[in-house]
Amino acid sequence: MLDRLAGPEERVTTSAVIEELRAGLGDHPELQDAIDLPWLRIEPLADLDELVHFAKFALRFGSGTHDVGEATVLAYAEAHQAIAFTDDQLAVKSDGSTESR
After folding, report:
1. Could you report the per-residue pLDDT of 71-93, keeping only the tens digit for each?
2. Domain count, the chain
3. pTM (two decimals)
């Protein structure tokens, strides 16, 4: 679905998301399909701007390990002026507040 939504735009995820998916392979082997997507580029959060944004999102979400992947995706998107798609229940409104759906 994401390949159709993004059209010709580049699709990126973070290494933290891939690690979360790998951790779930024992219970959900079908996650391997997401890990192996040929059109999905995997990026680490490495530069200072990305890390500053990550710290901001991590503070908003709390310290749960599940939220690390989402925080890295949102941080990458903000640092690179990109659009983030997530499947988690915690949403961030444009004013920076969080809302659980």
Report:
1. 999 999 999 999 888 876 655 55
2. 1
3. 0.78
Helical segments of the chain, H only? 2-5, 15-23, 31-35, 48-61, 66-79
In which domain, by residue range, is 55 found? 2-100
Rounded to 5°, angle at Cα 12 from 61 and 94: 40
Amino acid at residue number 71: A
User: Rounded distance, CA 37 to CA 30, Å?
Assistant: 12
pLDDT in tens, 12-67: 999 999 999 999 999 999 999 999 999 999 999 999 999 999 999 998 887 667 68
Is the alpha carbon torsion for 72, 78, 81, 82 positive or negative?
A: positive
One-letter amino acid for residue 66 of the chain: H
User: Which domain CATH number covers 73?
Assistant: 3.40.50
Indicate the residue type of 63.
S
